[in-house]
Specification:
The strands form four sheets. The chain has a six-stranded parallel beta sheet with strand order 3-2-4-5-7-6, sandwiched between helices. It starts with 5 loop residues before the first strand and ends in a 16-residue tail after the last strand. Helix 3 crosses helix 18 and helix 11 packs parallel to helix 14. It is an alpha/beta fold and 569 residues long.
């Protein structure tokens, strides 16, 4: 009689992930998780193999933002888990759902100095909403569903699942495996988030505050983009005539080209508004903590956030806990019963639009100049125009670096939601190539264009091999200015001592051949130093939709130290 078919822990984990709806996983394989990656792929979860766990983690984090479902990160034990902490913590800081799965040493050998031994639960807990360990094979399906659910519930964030080597090698009968997955799925369905409590009074207060405001403003955060709130927010802006200000990754929820965009009048908008409806954004450093002198001391905040603790921390005039899309729909409904619209001739709207127009004209005058050797503005204008020429679906722009990201935020245009990915809440450098890979697999119909400083690019540059291996439609443009901020910026009194002849801490090899690195793996490389060369490279690479690196040589003295955050350095 033939032996009954069995399933090991690796196969069970792969099947459970697939049954829970996972479609992609990012990671680096090795002891003890190589089989888990293969088994997950066999179950329908596409595995993207990276060269470094940090990049894989950043990919998983961005995937969570782009899809609204947890990005999966797979690492080996010990140092692999430690490397994965970068992505886990980045996801939690940005409120993006992620599940990190790591193998770990045999439980029987824990505490004895086993191969890559680490208390991975203790290591991940500070950065995770939930950190759990499967101590037997039967635990795996339940914990997979539990962790995936925790990653998206409330304020999204990173979760961690530890599966020891001995558990991965345990086996159970095929029938029991199916029953465990079915039971886990049923329990997860039963534990689905209940409807949030009705907050009619808060909705009414918010609508009334906006109605009575003389200088209202809508602030759009990346949480609104994550919540797919674009239709509701556009309706609010269009029906009320209230100007809006997006945070960097909130750009595109309402098109940057919209007449009520206050992006080019940011200081005026936040300095003089009397009521600010903040949707899916925290009043942290990116918004000057909502405090004077950047904001008026009399401004009244209406704060919409999925996290009650955030409301309690900021103590706004009105706090509404809930999903951004649902809350704005309710505010729209409340306003519909007693509609109002500021109109183009309203003094506040006129002030914002005039200031924005004046600032745009000043910027466009600078952008119109072809400066060679390149400053930041000339190549960014050419890149902007090439991206806009692609139409819809718009390319996803990945932006990383100090000057490159800061200047790019003002120049590059987002007219569709979730088409800008940058360093985020933490200002994390090294996210670029991981983001590119996540965007390419999450949104396969879109071209991905990365605009990278050479320092930011260097963190994850080896992942260009990953781009080539999977033939992803990613064009990476490296702003090469010879180093961090632009090479050697030292004052004479800093160039002293026994090591004064060493390169500056901010210096890289001048005119490094980054494009040749891409060519070494079989991708397309371009070296550009003039507007004509850049336009040609963009046209050819955008049309090909194949992995490419454009090495764009920038004047080392064109940028500022620390971008726009000199006061922090």
């Amino acid at each position: 009689m033939a032996a009954a078919a069995t399933v090991d822990g690796s196969a069970l984990a792969g099947r459970a992930l697939a049954a829970a709806g996972a479609r992609h996983m990012f990671g680096v394989v090795g002891i003890p998780v190589t089989s888990l990656a293969s088994r997950a792929a066999a179950a329908g979860v596409r595995f993207l193999a990276f060269r470094n766990e940090q990049s894989a983690g950043y990919a998983a984090a961005a995937y969570g933002f782009l899809t609204g479902t947890p990005g999966l990160l797979l690492t080996v034990s010990g140092p692999g888990c430690v490397h994965g902490l970068a992505g886990l913590s980045h996801a939690t800081a940005n409120a993006w759902p992620l599940l990190m799965v790591s193998g770990s040493c045999d439980q029987a050998d824990a505490g004895r100095g086993d191969f890559q031994e680490l208390d991975q639960i203790a290591a991940t807990k500070p950065f995770a909403k939930l950190a759990v360990k499967a101590t037997t094979i039967a635990d795996i399906p339940r914990l997979v569903f539990q962790a995936l659910n925790a990653a998206v519930s409330g304020r999204p964030g990173g979760c961690y699942l530890d599966i020891p080597s001995d558990v991965l090698h345990q086996t159970i009968p095929e029938s029991e495996a199916a029953d465990l997955i079915a039971a886990a799925a049923a329990a997860d369905s039963a534990a689905a988030n209940p409807s949030p409590p009705k907050q009619n009074s808060s909705i009414e207060k918010a609508a009334e505050l906006l109605r009575r405001a003389e200088r209202p403003l809508v602030v759009i955060g990346k949480g609104a983009a994550y919540a797919r709130a674009e239709e509701a927010i556009r309706k609010l802006v269009d029906t009320t005539g209230i100007p809006f200000l997006p945070t960097p990754m909130g750009k595109g929820v309402v098109p940057d080209s919209h007449l009520l965009s206050a992006t080019a009048a940011r200081s005026l908008a936040i300095g003089q508004c009397d009521v600010a409806l903040v949707v899916g954004a925290r009043l942290n450093w990116l918004l000057h903590f909502g405090e004077p002198p950047k904001w008026s001391k009399d401004v009244k905040f209406i704060l919409v956030d999925v996290c009650e603790e955030e409301i309690e921390l900021r103590k706004p005039h009105v706090g509404i806990v809930g999903d951004a899309k649902r809350v704005i729909e309710l505010i729209n409904r409340e306003i519909k019963d007693d509609p109002f619209c500021l109109g183009r001739s309203h003094p506040w709207v006129e002030a914002i639009t005039k200031k924005a127009k004046d600032n745009v004209l000043k910027m466009e005058a600078q952008l119109a100049k072809d400066v060679v050797p390149f400053n930041f503005l000339t190549p960014l204008r050419i890149i902007r125009d090439a991206i806009l020429a692609e139409g819809s679906p718009a390319p996803i722009v990945v932006s990383e670096g100090a000057n490159t990201m800061d200047v790019g935020r003002a120049v590059l245009v987002q007219n569709e939601p979730r088409t800008r990915l940058d360093a985020g809440t933490w200002g994390t450098m090294g996210v670029g190539l991981g983001y590119c890979i996540a965007a390419a697999v999450a949104e396969p119909e879109r071209l991905v264009v990365a605009v990278e400083g050479d320092s930011g690019y260097g963190f994850s540059a080896m992942e260009v091999e990953t781009l080539v291996r999977y033939q992803l439609p990613v064009v990476v443009i490296v702003f090469n200015n010879n180093g961090v901020y632009g090479g050697d910026r030292r004052s004479p009194d800093e160039i002293t001592g026994p090591h004064k002849d060493d390169p500056a801490p901010t210096s890289f090899v001048p005119a490094a051949g980054y494009h040749k690195m891409m060519e070494a793996f079989g991708g397309k490389g371009y070296l550009v130093e003039t507007p004509e060369e850049l336009k040609s490279a963009l046209s050819e690479s955008f049309h090909a939709r194949k992995p490419a690196v454009i090495n764009c040589i920038i004047d080392p003295y064109a940028g500022a130290e620390s971008g726009r955050m000199q006061h922090k350095n």
